[in-house]
Amino acid sequence: MFIEPTRRREPPHLRVGWIELICGSMFSGKTEELIRRLNRARIAKLNVGIFKPSLDTRYHDQNIVSHNSSVITSIPVPDAASILPLAHACDVVGIDEAQFFDSAVVDVCNQLANDGKRVIIAGLDMDFSGKPFGCMPQLMAVAEFVTKVHAICVVCGDIAHYSYRLVPSQERVLLGETDSYEARCRRCFHLGPDAPHREWVQE
Ligand SMILES: Nc1ncnc2c1ncn2[C@@H]1O[C@H](COP(=O)(O)OP(=O)(O)O)[C@@H](O)[C@H]1O
Ligand SMILES: Cc1cn([C@H]2C[C@H](O)[C@@H](COP(=O)(O)O)O2)c(=O)[nH]c1=O
Ligand SMILES: [Zn+2]
């Protein structure tokens, strides 16, 4: 488990910020981990701002919802630059679905951290074809802390780090859940549609 660096309450001109990146496949717990860290920052009575790309309206316009139904309210923004003015008064800035943001998201995170804010940003590191997604590689490079979380392969039960697409679309952006994606390990990802899913085992 990630142990948060302590944030002392220095005067604003002495504050040092940083970037924490949470990455992994779908169903790996990125959103749960983001919500956990943001809730703890709120318990510490820090001013927390939470943002997501307005493109992602899967469950709710404003809420960020994990696959396990943890919820936190966020501000949907059309692009990364829109975060800066909205985060002005924040001590901690949370950002979900980083892979959908434009390339300015890297500068935005750097500016926020340079301004003394703790930035916690979560996103898919690979798309459905196993290629690095959007600005995630750049974010990994500039973040002080990178946490890679893993799902469970629904085919064989091993650790999964791929998001396998179950529908034929080749579009990079295709919003969806278990209807269109499943978590798979390296071996089962490459087995494709013929992967033999294990049966449920009754105790
Ligand atoms: N294949 C899977 N592996 C692990 N967790 C899964 C899987 N399928 C569904 N889940 C659920 O998804 C939750 C994680 O959801 P979430 O934080 O939204 O993940 P992410 O943001 O990485 O997609 C887990 O706690 C678990 O309840
Ligand atoms: C792999 C992959 C995923 N997506 C979409 C599917 C979901 O709507 C989000 C990821 O959500 P999560 O919080 O990580 O579960 O991204 C996509 O558009 N393209 C892809 O290749
Ligand atoms: Zn597997």
Automatic annotation (TrEMBL):
Name of one Pfam family that matches: TK
Instruction: Please list the residues that bind ATP.
Output: 24-31, 96-99
Where along the chain is Zn(2+) bound?
Answer: 153, 156, 185, 188
Identify the keywords attached in UniProt to this record, alphabetized: ATP-binding, Cytoplasm, DNA synthesis, Kinase, Metal-binding, Nucleotide-binding, Transferase, Zinc
Which compartments is it annotated to reside in? Answer: Cytoplasm
Instruction: Report the principal subcellular site.
Output: cytoplasm
Under the subunit heading, UniProt states: Homotetramer.
Its recorded name reads: Thymidine kinase
Gene that this polypeptide is encoded by: tdk
